[in-house]
Amino acid sequence: MVKVLKVGGSILTDKSRSATARPEEIRRVAEEIAAFPKGLVFVHGAGSFGHVPAKMYGLPQRFSFEGLRVTHQSVVRLNDMVVDALSHAGANPMPVHPFSCTLLKEGRIDRLAVEPLKEMISDGLLPVLHGDVAMDTVRKAGIVSGDQLVPYLAEALRADVVAVGSNVDGVIFQGRPLAKITRDDLAVLGSALGESAGVDVTGGMHGKILELLDLADMGIGSVIFNAATVGNISRALQGEAIGTAVVGQA
Fold first, then answer.
1. Considering only 37-41, 180-184, 188-192, 227-231, which range has the smallest mean pLDDT?
2. Structural domain range at position 140
3. Domain of 49: which CATH number?
4. E runs forming strands in the chain
5. What is the value of pTM for the model shown?
6. Roughly how many angstroms between the first and final C-alpha of the chain, as a whole number?
7. What are 41's strand-pairing partners?
8. Has residue 190 got a pLDDT over 70?
9. pLDDT in tens, 6-24
10. C-alpha angle with apex 109: 107 to 110, nearest 5 degrees?
């Protein structure tokens, strides 16, 4: 049994200010995760550590050696903070940087080294991945978001729990969170789906839903929940029905 959890950069960082972490939130998230470390893969968003420099250098539209280096170094700093917090909370985290193990093709993950992750999980380690830059066989380089990593990992590892934590109570429509969402619902929701606050180069809530709907088409459901609410990460990892379930067609 494998669980894939993502917590967005909007929880761990202040996305309106460059490279600004929220240490108390990082610590809280780490403590909740540390209570359920076995069989878990954790992915966190890059937040203001990734989106701000990526936008400044024009990534991924414009290839820039310096942009790649600066953006990668920035997201690694956040990843170090998260890994340290998880270690202090009692987990056995190991950083996994997508730039070193992922290859894109036209902006989509073409290959990702999953075998080392399987070994980590079987040996009781907690792989910690993050939004990052990555090489692209067509475009030279691109952005690999946490929202794209989640479905790829969930499908490759056949995850039984897939939970994506944001700073809202799920997919909000007419002021309230939906209990579930399918691909057919997208036409109705339309422009009501909001974008992320602050700088975001990866598509906001709409992009998140599209990625998870692709996963649902493979037979693996997921949930979008509010990771800013204390205790919700623990509930999500236990498979409780919180937030919005993303499901395939009946």
1. 188-192
2. 3-246
3. 3.40.1160.10
4. 3-7, 40-44, 93-95, 102-105, 108-112, 126-130, 132-136, 140-144, 161-166, 172-173, 176-177, 180-181, 222-226, 244-246
5. 0.93
6. 25
7. 4
8. no
9. 999 999 999 889 999 999 9
10. 110
